[in-house]
Amino acid sequence: MKTLRILALHGPNLNLLGTREPGHYGTVTLADINQQLIELGDTLALEVTSYQSNHEGALVDRIQQAGSDHIDGIIINPAAYTHTSIALRDALLATGIPFIEVHLSNIHRREEFRHRSMLVDAATGVIAGFGGASYSLALRGLNDHLRTTS
Fold first, then answer.
1. Per DSSP, what are the bridge partners of residue 48?
2. Torsion over CA of 106, 36, 20 and 8, rounded to 10 degrees?
3. How far, in Å, are 53, 56, 139 from residue 130 at the CA level?
4. Could you list the active site residues?
5. Phi–psi pair at 102, nearest 5 degrees
6. Distances in Å between the alpha carbon of 59 and those of 70, 81, 91, 92?
7. Against a cut of 0.70, is the pTM above it?
8. Which of 15, 71, 76, 95 could make an SS bond with 9 (beta carbons 3.0 to 4.6 A apart)?
C-alpha cells in the first residue's frame, strides 16, 4: 500500500487547546491531537505532518507549500478563519489538494456568526462536534477518499 502524505493545519488559538474554553473544546491539547494523528496515520499507511499558526498569511503560505511538498490531502481546522477567510479558500482551491474541514465543536449549535464557512462548499467533507476525535474521523475519511479516487 502506497504511503500517502497528509497535512494537518490548525488555525488561530488552537495552540491553546486544553486550557481554552474547555466547555466548547475539551481538555485535549494540540500536541495530543497531533500525536493521535501520527499514530493513526501509521496504521493507515499515511505520513502525517502538522502545522499551526495564528496568522492567516502563514497558513496560506503553508497551503501553497503543500503542493510543492507533494501532499496528497489536507485536514484543516481554520478556527475563526472559517467564517472570514477567502484567502484560505483561494489557496486551497489553487492547490487542488482534497481537504477535510474539521471543527472540535458543532459550529451549528453555537453563535449564528459561526454557522457560515467560507470553505464548506469546496471541502471534500466536513466533520464537526466530536472534540479531538473529529480529527481522527477526518483522517479516516480522507484516507478512504484518497484511496478510492486515485
1. 6
2. -70
3. 22, 25, 13
4. 25, 103
5. -125, 140
6. 17, 10, 9, 10
7. yes
8. 76
